[in-house]
Amino acid sequence: MDKNKFYITTAIAYTSRKPHIGNTYEIILTDAIARFHRYIGEDVFFLTGTDEHGQKIQEIAEAEGVTPQAYVDRIAGQIVDIAKMLNISYDKFIRTTDDYHVKAVQQIFRKLYDQGDIYKSEYEGWYCTPCESFWTETQLVDGKCPDCGREVKKTKEEAYFFKMSKYQDRLMEYIETHPDFIQPESRKKEMVNNFLKPGLQDLCVSRSSFSWGIPVDFDDKHVIYVWIDALSNYITALGYTPEHKGELYRKYWPCDVHIIGKDILRFHTIYWPIMLMALGEPLPKQIFGHPWMLFGEEKMSKSRGNVIYAEDLVRHFGVDAVRYYALHEMPFAQDGNITYDVFIARYNSDLANALGNLVNRTVAMIQKYFGGELNGNTVTGEFDADLQATAINAVAEVRKKMETNHIADSLDEVWKVIDRANKYIDETTPWILAKDEATKGRLATVLYNLAETIRIIASLLSSFMPETAAAIAGQIHAADISYESVQAFGGLPLGTKVGEAVPLFQRIDVQKKLEELEAELAPSVPVAPFKDYIEFEDFEKLDIRVGRVIECERVKKSEKLLRFILEVGSETRQILSGISKYHTPEELIGKNVIFIANLKPRKIMGLESCGMILSAEYEDTLTALTTIKDIQSGAEIV
């Protein structure tokens, strides 16, 4: 009999930077789901990968002085290494720079163009480079990107557009008739009410202002924009092209579930289904928008200095502790959070105390009282049935919750068994039973029940904490921890010789570990070497003033220069400054800036620059210096 097929994907990781634990959470979550479906006997295909094109990547690569391909090769390599470190069991890793993907995307674009779903026009509006999203004036929030809150740039360029509105009603009907298509329910309401009901605008699907992307093969001025490129990976990885549907595609599509972050829900629940409708292909069965893992109450951000990386956590706490925290501390529909002190508290209470102590003392007692051998299970007592029922019921409960992606709730079911087993030790008091030869038969049964319960715990943990599950099975010498083996209590054979009691998780000294982490992970701020001392008289030669920006614009044919007109008291001053990559003209108009007023004028690109605006430089960023208060322009800096 053929196994049930199960196809699961992550969103492919954007290669603009090394991912932090908030980004990495998604692949841990998806891996646990994939492992569980393998565990229950399904034929699983688990896809992950990297999204490697776009203006943001091109700009970062140029700033580093490397080619975009060299840059994404490095970041993709880091992402593969992180997946390996976290014991991720993916079946395929796709990169959007892979040749087969590039060719398939070009064919998809051409098909949509040939059938009239894509047309050429011109775009004028606001563009957010980090989000790779276009916005109208009315969609901006306080003049900034409504998704990420960053600055946007006024953009006008020729582009190809996809007729989203053509498929809007069909998509609405599909969502209404497939209630599980978008999960959780709150995400579905957000998409329908905020985007579909107000009406869809046609989607920009090509760019002509940068070159790092898949070329439109019939119009070499354009590259295919991120959404058709990146979203198509879910089918191109299976060998799909419009002309040929590969064997893997025929076997596994439609996808059972796309696991994605809630911040890219619109692209997956609106753009992607419409693209598939236009291609005449089935839609995925479900799109699950998981919440964010926050640092305390804030979204992780390198600029905020609140980023935690998976390798730091693994180095200090181990792989399975990181997997456990990520899976258990993220609610089904609300954001979770991570801080080092909360992580350590959970490690000590759940892993070292509850799970670790249960396994350690059970194995130690079997060694102490019976030379390591399980040799009886016939002298029953009043607490046995409840322990056995708790363990076996958990098998069904974990499956029920995993089939609806309630991962944290599934782990709660496992911990109910762990807690019940620890209570069973207190109820049966093996150390007292061991004192009387007449109760040795009862002691043998108690220890067998504990060992068998631990075997079931190991089986249930194998999807979430595979190394720990294997270590537990190794300590009790359980040859079989398969799903089939835990459908009934009693699968551990009598006569089994357990191993040595080795602690699974060593309890952590909270204060000591926090001090160690603070010392090791405190941000190291590189400071440029200080210049030689100067005399005070040399400083006095500089005339540093405050100027109010009354005009600011980009200098034509220059990628770096902005032209400023400053109000300096009753005068005006023109200055050119190479900070256009870091500031937009709009954000500077009306601001007070600090400038050197007595620098000899010079011509730059045919324009006279009379002074120098002062900026602070850190890493790859320049920030124009401004005043805290709205001081009078022309004021002297002393």
UniProtKB/TrEMBL annotation:
Binding site for Zn(2+): C128, C131, C145, C148
Domain TRNA-binding, first and last residues per copy: 538-638
A Pfam family: Anticodon_3
Stated name of the protein: Methionine--tRNA ligase
Role according to the record: Is required not only for elongation of protein synthesis but also for the initiation of all mRNA translation through initiator tRNA(fMet) aminoacylation.
Assembly, per entry: Homodimer.
Cited InterPro entries: Anticodon_Met (IPR041872), Met-tRNA-synth_bsu_C (IPR004495), Met-tRNA_synth (IPR014758), Met-tRNA_synth_2 (IPR023457), Methionyl/Leucyl_tRNA_Synth (IPR015413), MetRS_core (IPR033911), NA-bd_OB-fold (IPR012340), Rossmann-like_a/b/a_fold (IPR014729)
Species annotation: Candidatus Avimonoglobus intestinipullorum
Gene Ontology CC entries for this record: cytoplasm
Molecular function terms, GO-annotated: ATP binding; metal ion binding; methionine-tRNA ligase activity; tRNA binding
Keywords recorded for this protein, A-Z: Aminoacyl-tRNA synthetase, ATP-binding, Cytoplasm, Ligase, Metal-binding, Nucleotide-binding, Protein biosynthesis, RNA-binding, tRNA-binding, Zinc
Top-level taxon: Bacteria
EC number: 6.1.1.10
